[in-house]
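Translate sequence into structure tokens.
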Amino acid sequence: MTIEFYDTTLRDGTQAENFNLSVDDKIKITRQLDKLGIDFIEGGWPGSNPLAVEYFERMKGVELGHAQLSAFGATRHFQNPADQDPNLQALVAAKTPAITIFGKSWDIHVHDALRIELEDNLLIIEDSLAYLRPHVRHLIYDAEHFFDGFKNNREYCLATLERAIKGGAETLALCDTNGGTLPHEIPPIIERVKQFLAEQGSSARIGIHPHNDSETAVANALLGISLGCTQVQGTMNGYGERCGNANLTSIIPAVVCKMGHEAEVGKHIDKLYSTSRLINELANLPHNRYQPYVGESAFAHKGGIHVSAVQRNPITYEHIEPEKVGNIRRILISDQAGKSNVLHKAVKYGLNLKADDPAMTQIIQDLKELENQGFQYEGAEASFELLMRRAMGIKPRFFTLEGFRVMNNKYRMDAESLTEATIRLTVDSEEAHTASLGNGPVNALDKAMRKALLRFYPRLEEMELADYKVRVLTGEHGTGAKVRVLIDSQDAESQWSTVGVAFNIIEASWQALEDAVNYKLMKDALKNA
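Result follows.
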């Protein structure tokens, strides 16, 4: 059986507390989910806010290799004809190959939320879908609160599915919106739905969309698949409103590696770990090291019987091979952990590095030391490539910092602060000493560095800072805590990310800025070589 994976991180996931993404972040995640092999990517609710409008507009110029982008919305307002409903019009205007709309399955919601009659709800389900059907390649219906609705009034709940089928829905996603359904309740409900579809002579696919309020979303999703659901909807790392959604980073390997189902994502499942980490970094949220499959501790072994057994035969204490999902085995007393990942990166960067190369030991040593300091390279591959090249002795030196100073002056409480940075550096023994004003210390430092380097490297003019994030690494020291800075830079051809860590936020920013400029100069030098 072939399973479709439908990711709603960009819509349902962003409803989680403290989970925020810029439009650029959403596009990066969309591209990564496409590389992973996700079948449907729910981009959000068009027209709900300016960011959503911008995302769908920009996505019209983004070509995806496999995934189908889906716009999300609700059935029409009862007072609006379908062809005049702003929500439906926004869905059509998004020009996505897929559209997903949700409708009410629970009679309580029809009466108390929509405040319309039960028959009126059936009408708006059918004609909303019927209106959208000619405008889209894939039409998916999310039956909101389906399991609660079924338990309260199964006849009406099934009637909503009947009208969705008549409207043209190709997939019916059964939603446990409140997340209160337990696994033992799932089988009889899905079996009745399958029987009902057979009675209707319908070939519509059944999907499942569980929430995690009872800590059973993954179990419910896997159970649904075992019962014949062919689409599963969830989010990366389980982000979502309240307690979150079904976690695709746990569901995907279970479906592909353990249940043996076919799926496009199965061909690229080794990207699961990096996808999970990228989303955390872009959302500026800490990684859950204890997360199954993709957590740092998922395949970590520490001393004693476990280590000796795993070294002889990994299956003694590992349920799957970590490399399958892009993770690594970590023997916490061994300096060999991470070699496979380093070799994989070397191939990606075009570096001639072998497992027995002396530089490998140096890279592992540097990596361990820097990670202990708080560096993370999942979202900063440019910095990691520079680290590898430095250990291999092939990192060119474009400039040397001799010193910098940043001053922030507040002369009047009703006026903006005045920030100035001065920098002194050398290029081939020639000194450059410049100063610049900026909007804050990082911007001033960035402008001063560029001002000093432009006469030596004119192509830096085309480089710009695209994003800047700061994360406090340890909270126990309050304002004296160590911070990690992640900077995204771009030019006309590409985008790259760099990282810096220090107790001083300006020092951490400088580290990331220095790597960003060095990477740009190295990239240009290699291109012209």
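Note: The chain is about 40% helix and 20% strand.
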